[in-house]
Amino acid sequence: MKPTVKLRVILVVLSVGFLSACSETSEPAPVERSVYVHSMDGVPRSLDPAQASSLYSKFLVVNLYDTLYRYQYLARPYELAPNLATGMPVFSDDGLTLTIELKPGVHFIDDPAFADGQGREVVATDVVYSILRHFDPAMRGQGAWLWQGRIAGLDEWKAAGADYDTPPDGLQATGRYTLQLRLTRPFPQILHTLTQGYAAIVPREAVEALGEQLGTRPVGSGPYRLESFDSARAVLERNPDFRAEPIRLAEEGFEPRRDRVWGLEIIEGQVPPLTDRIEVEFIPEDAARWNTFYSGRSDFLKVSVSQSDTLMMNTDPVMLKPELAERFFLDAAPEAGFVFTNFNMSDPSIGHHEDPEQDRRNLALRCAIRMGFDWQTRNNQFFAGIGQVFPGVIPPGLPEFDPELDDSSIRFDPQGARDLLAANGWTPDNLPVLEYGFPASVTERQMFEQFRSFMEVIGFPRDKVRPKAFASFGDYAQAYSKREVMLMTAGWTLDYPDAENTLQLFYGPNASPGSNNSNFNDETFNELYQAASVLPPSPERTALFEQMNQRVIERCVTISGLNRHLILMWSRDAIMRPDRAFLGGYFLRFVDMVPTTGP
Amino acid sequence: MKTSRYFLQRLIYGFVLMLGVSLLSFTLMVWFGPDQTYELLGKNPSAAQVEELRESLGYNRPFLSRYGNWLGDMLQGDLGQSTRNGEYVSKLLSRTLPVTLLLVLPGFLLGNLFGLLLGMAAAWFRGSVLDRLVLAGSVAGLSLSFLVIIIVLQILLCTPYGLNWFPARGWRVDGLESYLFHVTVPTLALILVSVGYNTRFYRAVILEELGREHIRTALAFGATPAELLFRNALRNGLVPIITRLLYSVPLVVVSGSLLLETYFGIPGVGKVTFDAITSGDQPVLLAVVTLTAILFVIVQLVAEAGCRLADPRLQNQ
User: Fold this and answer.
1) What pLDDT, on a 0 to 100 scale, did the predictor assign at position B161?
2) Are A545 and A372 spatial neighbours (Cβ–Cβ below 8 Å)?
3) What is the ipTM of this complex?
């Protein structure tokens, strides 16, 4: 080859090499995006805050929308914290008027529902509108019960035609960022209600433009916005316009000794949401949920009871097997709720009877059935032995829970039960047929069979304990709301950390179709409840709660109860402390992902 | 002319069939379906709120008025909105139907193809060890629960307990590679559960054809086994094959996909339908039932046309 040609070739090669090197350096490096994959054991029905009744819906709603208040990330017992509100409300002297200031400069996400498609600022009238929706029959809101009869003028507003342009006196925007609520009577739980998914703030334009489609197309001001939502998963993307509020761990209840184990100190000073993208997989099936988690395709798992033996080395205290502990964090937390079995007190064969003598015998019958219920066996066989059985209806975890309460109401005493039945004239021949209601499933059927075996031990003929199964939970709810079920298995998930939320389950005016499915209507209990309902948390109120609790126990209204413990596992790449209780989905904004190394 | 009149007649019957199916399914939903009231109520409703909700759901309206409204909307193409989350049913179906088709079609086609090949082999070697093995295998396949197959495959292929090559769940499809990544395990499950049934069916069809005189004649004329099986036996057995294949499409699409979609977390129409049944989401359920009826009518027409093509003697009937 001639030297000039050779030189040209060399120059061309060098040029190509130089240009390719330039193009490599001039192209920006791909931005690493952090992704957290959460698995949920249920499927949310709707993302419209007015219909966010399930904990699955609420989990997403509180990340897509703002509420006035939330709970501190790490404080236990749970402590309220401002969210969209600037701070705690200012109460009037009589405690009936609250004034809440909103943070200025917060915007809804962009959406065609707004003029020019740009999300406008969130103002106090939006809060008014969002609460009023629950009282508009056209909206089918599910949260009215939180504020019914508590905020002045709501019922009158509804009766007058539900005109949003003339809100009731008790719910007013007195300034652009100022909200004023006037209560009909003291309502100590009011701020708790403003943390609920029901209280999430929606723009009127979006509701009017989208109508029912708001259930799948949220337009909020929360830390995330929805990218996609179907029956299998939801994908949330960081809201780039979410207000920048650096994390102050001290204000979130951080306790170094407890929380350092999860590496949480590294999020101090960072601005939530800490993760760019959240993928929430809806996986009701235990096996599929475990397989997805174990293969590393999800970062979080709520362990099912059926798997706890396989995964746990110990259940007291709860400890993972070593090979799993290397890869995953674990937290065993009491559930915010409890399971119990109610007697239908409006059924004269087992509940209240007009004849005082029969009423006394029915009381003895209920108490005997309760004495024949073996909670420890129930706990071991259906809750892996890690549930906590407690007397009464104020579960552990609540400030008003009394660990020293006499436990005779949960003690298995079959001989005592038989003696009680005999002493009150109950024989196998005159015992009533017990109809035990439940929504059809394998587990519920097994629980019924176990219950029947308990009753046989105390003298019930087998054929006098019958199942009453319902095809779906909706059918079951309809039946007990119509008072058609004699014994009802039930579970109650608390809405806020206050024992009023469980005691209202036995308050007479809340009888079916309300939440009082036992239809207990006791004058003494009702008076105590009314007196306590206007008191703030205090020793005086706790004393009233204790009396109510004792009344429910004395009247043997319910076989109660068991507080389930939830076992939560998550990847060590996820820096977080997840929560399924009151904090719920609020923790997602604090989740930080350890950058993964790889090709 | 005769043919076109025949198909026109079929279309009219099909329309009447759809009306009948819609009325029957509407009646069943209204009288026996779940009442959504108590699923849509809040935690502590009053009796007034219960009545209010029932009124807004239309439960208090006369049956004929409800059916008439629904039918009128349906005929105008308005499938309504899901009472579960407010999504337009037409949008929901347009989103989920293609997913279900992409999910089940490979397994359906391959399951039938493998069943055909195994059935032909078993029929040709009838009575031999191969035949017995194929029959035994098909019985085993028939006996296995679809659910067990799904879980075992997930463990073997989708978890660190096994090969961990594929995802246990999900449908993040944006190209051929991601499609194959997500559809492989469900397809294997569908093949394993269907090949038993298919093998026995195809074996029976081919066996019947192989017993006919034209096969003996073709054999006498020196036809090879492949020619006998594919050109003679299979071709003459196309009528029952086409009928079975086409009539199983609606069932596979709707009911067959339910377990796959549930366990693999795939957002298809089977799971949506099941949720609508259990929750009483009438607009979704009625739309699915009606569209399934329409699909059956179309399948019937296509099957008739296909059979006439396969067997010209039918054109004169």
Assistant:
1) 86
2) no
3) 0.82
- A227 touches B at CB < 8 Å: no
What CATH architecture applies to the domain B94-316? Orthogonal Bundle (1.10)
* Inter-chain CB pairs, A–B, below 8 Å: 149
Among the partner-chain residues A145, A213, A216, the one whose CB lies closest to the CB of B43 is A145
| CATH class of the domain whose range is A46-220 | alpha beta
Structure-model confidence comparison of residues B10 and A574, the more confident one:
A574
Q: Judge whether B257 is closer than 8 Å to chain A, CB to CB.
A: no
Bond into A223 cis (ω within 30): no
Half-sphere exposure of B239 (CA within 13 A, CB side): 12
CB atoms within 10 A of CB A489: 20
What distance in Å separates the CA atoms of residue A86 and residue A107, rounded to the nearest whole number? 15
Nearest by CB: A145 against B45, B160, B170: B45
Which residues is A173 bridged to in the sheet? A179
Nearest partner of A46 among A231, A227, A203, judged by Cα: A231
Cβ-contact A352, A521 below 8 angstroms: yes
C-alpha A213 chain-centroid distance: 24
For chain A, which residues make up each domain, given as ranges? 1-40+244-334+567-599, 46-220, 337-563
What does the pLDDT read at residue A14? 52
A288 and B164 within 8 Å at the Cβ level: the answer is: no
Q: Determine the Cα–Cα distance for residues B81 and B87; give it in Å rounded to an integer.
A: 5
Nearest to B168 among A291, A471, A495 (CB): A291
Q: What's the angle, vertex CA A471, arms to CA A469 and CA A477, rounded to 5? A: 80
pLDDT tens-digit series, residues A582-592 = 888 999 999 99
Of the candidates A339, A309, A553, the one whose C-alpha atom is nearest the C-alpha of residue A438 is: A339
Sequence letter at residue A448:
F
Domain A337-563: CATH class, spelled out: alpha beta
Q: Mind listing the pLDDT tens digit for each residue in A185-211?
A: 999 999 999 999 999 999 999 999 999
A326 interfacial to chain B (CB closer than 8 Å):
no
Q: Any chain A CB within 8 A of the CB of B164?
A: yes
pLDDT in tens, A239-293: 999 999 999 999 999 999 989 899 999 999 999 999 999 999 999 888 889 988 9
The length of chain B is 317
Collect all residues with Cβ–Cβ distance below 8 Å to B4 and sequence separation of at least 6: none
Q: Which residues contact A312 (CB under 8 A, 6 or more apart)?
A: A318, A319, A320, A321, A384, A567
